[in-house]
Amino acid sequence: MTREDRKLLKHFQEHERYWKPKTPKGVRYNPPRRRIDAHSLDWEEEDPEIRAVEKRPRRKPEPPSTPGLVIGVGPGACTVLCRGEQLTCRPFPGLAVGDRVLLDRRKIEQILPRSTTLSRPDPHNPRVERVIAANIDVVVIVVSVRAPELRPGLIDRYLVAIERSGTEPVVCVNKMDLAESESELAPLDPYHSLGIVVVPVSAATGEGIGELLEILAGRMAVLAGHSGVGKSSLLNAMCPELSLETRSVSEVHGKGRHTTTSSQLYEMSNGARIIDTPGIREFGLWQLGREELHGHFHEFDAWGGECRFADCTHTHEPGCAVKQAVEAGQIPRARYEAYCRILGSLLG
Ligand SMILES: Nc1nc2c(ncn2[C@@H]2O[C@H](COP(=O)(O)OP(=O)(O)O)[C@@H](O)[C@H]2O)c(=O)[nH]1
Ligand SMILES: [Mg+2]
Ligand SMILES: [Zn+2]
After folding, report:
1. Using CA atoms, how far apart are residues 117 and 135, in angstroms rounded to an integer?
2. Same domain for 141 and 270?
């Protein structure tokens, strides 16, 4: 009998003892025969079924969540490394490779705060952020010198996103075995001048692979770039046991097909953790205002303050020092044109 029951019982007993109902004259008051006592209130104790319910052990407390590292995100499933075991889990909204998560058995409960993210807007809904990789130190922008031809335009876009993400860029030029002369790398000179590391490599011959591995030793990196430039082939060259699937570019109008359909993290023997991503066609810039863009083109730094108008966009304004510097060959024209192209693509 609980304390409440005892209180109730006392109340009833007193009630029965003292309560004197007003009885109309001539009518004999007949108090109820039912006697309320401890026994009548203890009926639960007598009911074996209810007793069984009461005696059932309480639900065990939830086991504490275990931390895990997301090493694969693909359509419909993701892979989490948890206490040395690879678990296949259901997708979790916004999850990216490199994320640290809390798991309840195989269920992802929470994404832990990220140190960095490389993001882009969802190609189908620009208001939605798509995180390409999380908690990375380095973004390796992979381009190929040929097949597909060198397209620095993607490098310019990536550099802006990388600076905003707080990570470090490395430009990796693959398929050097197809280059006929060093001069084919001339379009990359502006990046050298910006102090960005540019590594010429060939996944086919192994040239430069050791240097790339050395740069990435002990760090978390993501390989980003167009489809068919040889991202998966580079991983195979760095770690032959991986034997990742790669695809011939010639099959689909020389554009390359998405052979890699999920993002996956691989660990190298020197501690480099490298994320392979599916190729992308377009790389949009996440939450970048038009007025912020010129701040990411550091060739403009020395001239921007000299423009006639303080809010000069360096496009149509008279007295623009940036445009004058382009004309004088002090700012690489290709970089200025990249700036104008990106500015034109940003929402007003
Ligand atoms: N000649 C040459 N071909 C390469 C090299 N690296 C990759 N490829 C080829 O380029 C194609 C696309 O490679 P893949 O790794 O699938 O590109 P990804 O889409 O960026 O992952 C494949 O046919 C590879 O054999 C290289 O260094 N030299
Ligand atoms: Mg691939
Ligand atoms: Zn200007």
Report:
1. 6
2. yes
| Six token digits for residue 197 | 């590391």
**3-state class (DSSP) for residue 138:** strand
User: Contact at 8 Å (CB) between 129 and 164?
Assistant: no
Q: Which amino acid is at 42?
A: D
CA of residue 212 relative to chain centroid, distance: 24
Model confidence pLDDT, tens digit, residues 128-148: 999 999 999 999 999 999 988
pLDDT (0 to 100) of residue 252: 46
- The CATH number assigned to the domain holding 340 equals 1.10.40.50
User: Is 181 found in the same domain as 263?
Assistant: yes
CATH of the domain at 256: 3.40.50.300
**What's the CA gap between 342 and 153, in Å, rounded?**
9
**Can you tell me which atom of ligand 1 is nearest the CA of 233?**
15
Peptide bond into 318 cis (omega under 30): no
Nearest ligand 1 atom, CA 201: 27
Give the tens place of pLDDT for each residue, 88-121.
Answer: 999 999 999 999 999 998 899 999 999 999 999 9
State pTM to two decimals.
0.80
- Whole-angstrom Cα distance, residue 89 to residue 213? 30
CA–CA distance, 288 with 277 (Å, rounded to integer): 23
Instruction: Provide the domain count of the chain.
Output: 3
Ligand 1 atom, smallest distance to 205 CA: 27
Q: Tell how far the Cα of 81 is from the centroid of ligand 1, in angstroms.
A: 28
Look at residues 228, 198, 227 and name the one whose alpha carbon lies nearest to residue 212.
Answer: 198
Q: Which domain holds residue 323?
A: 290-345
Q: Which of 142, 173, 233 to mutate to test the pocket of ligand 1 (most atoms within 8 A of CB)?
A: 233
